[in-house]
């Protein structure tokens, strides 16, 4: 039989099966025996994966989610990545999911992400092993170490990045933000200095690695996913060499080794395996780099179109710098950081409206009942954490960038529970405070040195990872403090 004849016979059959399964998966209110949230299961195998993952403004939930909320409510069902899935845009349910980690729900990282990040990555782990890995990260980024160990380096790197900016020049703020965050993380994770050949090689491979994270997971020659896996191998080789150096120092009994970097700390104190150490370092590089760089870029983007907020922010930092000069102090201190009141309002509002992370992957580990709905054991659950940030019942005029909304203490206290940019519950990001500190320190120096404008129209987009289609091109103008004095 000729190929065309075979196609003519098979195509109607495939179409019929697709239509059959699509209607079979449609339900207004779930089964009678179980009150599963309403929704449809979409196309066989792929379900609703394509429309759900469609790029959209990070300051929105996306067309697909908005349409389903309008049709089914804030909790609905769908087929994501071939699995029956409950999607929640309900802030209360999302908090319940995050707080019930290990009791009713557990992490359910997609297989493709786990393969790239590694089986021992904190993104892929659950239960006791995750708690052990997370405790290492929490101890490494404790408030004590943020004050004495991280803060001076954060300020040094911010000054170094900004000192290379020239009046009237145009460049990608996204790339500058990524460079700033990457240099900080590799320094504190592995004592790798910015600009060195091995550091630049690692950064080059990491860029390729990240492109595969948001690609179609096809492990075929030439695909972004295959290239990402290859870059992962090179990255782990570089990290492995650094680990061997730390292990050798441990054997020689070098003093103060655990203070050098995270590799030194785990090599000296931990009983975890080599593979676990390398996956931990890679996952922390990913989390620390992506979150901080995105947050800084979002602040640059929102402040550019909010001159009143920028002016108040600038005045706060000029006053801090003036007081430090009068006291004969140079570098920023932890007290300085904590006293940046309006800066923290800017940070909160940037995280709220920018939505660095749109949703999380969880799985029900037992039958769960919530608000009259049954969540079957084994079903995937996707809490859309950005939904609380954009909910008009929680925030007045949620689409507006308004840092002043955070100045009312009672309002700020009640709303802090609804800021889920760093997840929540037992899986709260251990680097949340570090990311905020990096934002504050970078902004401290940026707003005193430069004004800026978008060189081209651009806006933050969820891919689902956050990014700017044009890499956030800006034109900077150096501030002449003598002229303004």
TrEMBL record:
InterPro entries referenced in this protein's UniProt entry, alphabetically: Cyt_P450, Cyt_P450_CS, Cyt_P450_E_grp-I, Cyt_P450_sf
Leader sequence range is: 1-16
Q: Where in the cell is it found?
A: Membrane
Principal location: membrane
Q: How does it sit in the membrane?
A: Single-pass membrane protein
Which keywords, in A-to-Z order, does the entry hold? Answer: Heme, Iron, Lipid biosynthesis, Lipid metabolism, Membrane, Metal-binding, Monooxygenase, Oxidoreductase, Signal, Steroid biosynthesis, Transmembrane, Transmembrane helix
Q: Which GO terms describe its molecular function?
A: heme binding; iron ion binding; monooxygenase activity; oxidoreductase activity, acting on paired donors, with incorporation or reduction of molecular oxygen
GO CC term (a single one):
membrane
Entry binding sites for heme? 429
Per the entry, which co-factors are needed? heme
Name the GO terms of the biological process aspect.
brassinosteroid biosynthetic process; brassinosteroid homeostasis; sterol metabolic process
Protein family: Belongs to the cytochrome P450 family.
What is the name of the protein in this document? Cytochrome P450 90B1
Lineage, uppermost ranks: Eukaryota, Viridiplantae, Streptophyta, Embryophyta, Tracheophyta
């Amino acid at each position: 039989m000729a190929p065309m004849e075979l196609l003519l016979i098979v195509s109607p059959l495939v179409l019929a099966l697709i239509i059959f399964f699509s209607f079979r998966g449609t339900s207004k209110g779930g089964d009678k025996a179980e009150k599963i949230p309403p929704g449809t299961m979409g196309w066989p195998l792929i379900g609703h994966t394509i429309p759900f993952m469609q790029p959209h403004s990070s300051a929105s939930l996306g067309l697909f989610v908005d349409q389903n909320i309008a049709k089914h409510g804030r909790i609905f069902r769908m087929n994501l990545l071939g699995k029956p899935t409950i999607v929640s845009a309900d802030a209360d349910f999302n908090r319940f999911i995050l707080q019930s980690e290990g009791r009713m729900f557990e992490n359910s990282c997609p297989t493709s992400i786990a393969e790239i990040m590694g089986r021992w990555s904190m993104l892929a782990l659950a239960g006791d092993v995750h708690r052990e890995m997370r405790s290492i990260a929490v101890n490494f980024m404790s408030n004590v170490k943020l004050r004495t160990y991280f803060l001076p380096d954060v300020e040094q790197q911010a000054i170094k990045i900004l000192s290379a900016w020239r009046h009237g020049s145009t460049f990608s703020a996204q790339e500058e933000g990524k460079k700033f965050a990457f240099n900080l993380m590799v320094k504190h994770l592995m004592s790798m200095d910015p600009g060195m050949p091995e550091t630049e090689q690692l950064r080059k491979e990491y860029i390729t690695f990240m492109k595969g994270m948001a690609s179609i997971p096809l492990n075929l020659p030439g695909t972004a996913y295959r290239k990402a896996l290859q870059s992962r191998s090179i990255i782990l080789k570089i990290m492995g060499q650094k680990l061997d150096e730390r292990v050798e120092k441990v054997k020689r009994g070098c003093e103060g080794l655990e203070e050098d970097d995270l590799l030194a700390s785990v090599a000296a104190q931990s009983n975890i395996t080599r593979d676990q150490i390398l996956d931990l370092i890679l996952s922390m590089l990913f989390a620390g780099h992506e979150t901080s760089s995105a947050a800084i870029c979002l602040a640059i983007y929102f402040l550019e179109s909010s001159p009143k907020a920028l002016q108040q922010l600038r005045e706060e930092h000029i006053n801090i710098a003036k007081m430090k000069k009068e006291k004969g102090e140079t570098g920023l201190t932890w007290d300085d950081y904590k006293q940046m009141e309006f800066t923290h309002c800017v940070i909160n509002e940037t995280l709220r409206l920018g939505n660095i992370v749109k949703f999380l992957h969880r799985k029900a580990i037992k039958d769960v009942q919530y608000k009259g709905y049954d969540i079957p054991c084994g079903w995937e659950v996707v809490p859309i954490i950005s939904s609380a940030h954009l909910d008009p019942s929680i925030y007045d005029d949620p689409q507006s960038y308004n840092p002043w909304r955070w100045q009312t203490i009672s309002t700020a206290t009640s709303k802090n529970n609804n800021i889920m940019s760093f997840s929540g519950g037992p899986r709260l990001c251990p680097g949340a405070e570090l990311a905020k500190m990096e934002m504050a320190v970078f902004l401290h120096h940026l707003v005193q040195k430069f004004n800026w404008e978008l060189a081209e129209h651009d806006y933050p987009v969820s891919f689902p990872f956050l990014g700017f289609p044009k890499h956030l091109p800006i034109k900077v103008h150096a501030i002449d403090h003598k002229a303004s004095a």
